[in-house]
Amino acid sequence: MAINLKGRSFLSIMDFSTQEVRYLLDMAHDLKARKRSGLHSEVLKGKNIVLLFEKTSTRTRCAFEVAALDEGAHVTFLDAKSSQMGKKESLADTAKVLGRFYDGIEYRGYDQQVVEDLAKYAGVPVWNGLTDVDHPTQALADVMTIEENINKPLNQVRLAFCGDTRNNVAYCLMYICAKMGMSYIGFGPQELAPAPEVLARCEAVAEETGATFTISSNPAVLEGADAIYTDIWASMGEEDKIPERVQLLTPYRVTEKLMESTGNPDCIFLHCLPSFHDFETTMAKEQMERGYDIREVTDEVFLSPRSKVFDEAENRMHTIKAVMIATIG
Ligand code: CP
Ligand code: NVA
Predict the structure, then answer these.
(1) 135 annotated active-site
(2) 186 and 204 together in one domain
(3) What is the pLDDT of residue 27?
(4) Per the residue annotation, which of 231, 277, 287, 306 is the catalytic one?
(5) How many Å apart are CA 186 and CA 189, to the nearest integer?
């Protein structure tokens, strides 16, 4: 059956069928090949998109801007300080106004309900650029990178996420694993285990797709992993939790020893970025001066040939381009 996503918002991978996710991934692979050949189709010529950011970003903002400009669309960027949204104007009103000007709206912020409400009122597609509990464009880029680097069908791939297994990136990976019939391993402390309702939703989808879910603090679960994934230990807005996170998550830092424990010499390393893997950032340096080593991965792993993190970052742009082209009406 032909897939048509025109007019749809992209708020969570859970809103899409396996075939629809497959369609977006295939389109992203094609768009990457076309860009590499110097081809631009300008299919978004004459379209206008707006990017709303209540949290900071490098990759997501730039990916949306470059993807839009490559295809001929115009872009407006608004951050929390430069718009009325939520302070002097309700979300519903903001969404209705932006929906009159723009053909698509990207939103990054805190509460998932905000992006859901924007989609409800805007009348144009809304794309989730990260909330506290989801990051669906990231998951698409991650699976695209897996397809480029792991020579197995997705339903044979074992993806292990190490660390804060209840954060936005862990959740979006659980959702895409559920949809694509993959094996997901959440390796982290019990205190940061995924919410039972999130796991239950994934397991319900898994009954149809054959996906499997293992959540454990036992390092033995990493055996046979095809990809080890990690993320920072305290997400944006959780910086005050750094001391407790360092204590809880230091045993889950991705080291060469952890990579070797998979027993898979071809196991790749993935990370959504930004990453603390050295002390070249003010935050890692300042925290270290306070006695907190916040590195979630060692330089040895991050800079090794197993690490595909920069392919993954590039793929944010191709996958976001696919989402925009597929959904803008
Ligand atoms: N991975 C990711 O979303 O990066 P940014 O925070 O830089 O957008
Ligand atoms: N979990 C991280 C992801 C950043 C892309 C955060 O929310 O800060």
Answers:
(1) yes
(2) yes
(3) 98
(4) 231
(5) 9
Give yes or no: 138 in active site: yes
Do 260 and 305 contact (CB within 8 A), yes or no?
no
- Condensed to tens digits (0 to 9), the pLDDT of residues 157-188 reads 999 999 999 999 999 999 999 999 999 999 99
Would you state the structure tokens that stand for residue 320, as one six-digit string? Answer: 């976001």
Evaluate whether residue 2 is within a structural domain: no
Domain match, 174 and 65 both: no
Q: Is 108 one of the annotated active-site residues of the chain?
A: yes
Residues 159, 297 within the same domain: yes
In a domain, 6, yes or no: no
Q: Which atom of ligand 1 is nearest to the CA of 60?
A: 8
User: Which of 127, 145, 273, 315 for a ligand 1 pocket mutation test, highest count of atoms within 8 Å of Cβ?
Assistant: 273
pLDDT tens digits, residue range 23-78?
Answer: 999 999 999 999 999 987 899 999 999 999 999 999 999 999 999 999 999 999 99
Q: Which of these, 105, 88, 106, lies nearest to 96 by C-alpha position?
A: 105
Count the neighbouring beta carbons within 10 Å of the beta carbon of residue 174: 31
**pLDDT for 81:** 84
Locate 163 and state its tokens: 């660390």
Index of the ligand 1 atom closest to the CA of residue 313: 1
Residue 249 lies in a domain: yes
Q: Identify the residue whose C-alpha is closest to ligand 2 atom 7.
A: 235
Instruction: Specify the pTM.
Output: 0.98
Ligand 2 atom having least distance to the Cα of 164 = 1
Told to judge if 26 belongs to the known catalytic residues of this protein, a careful annotator would answer no
Token output for 59: 């990759």
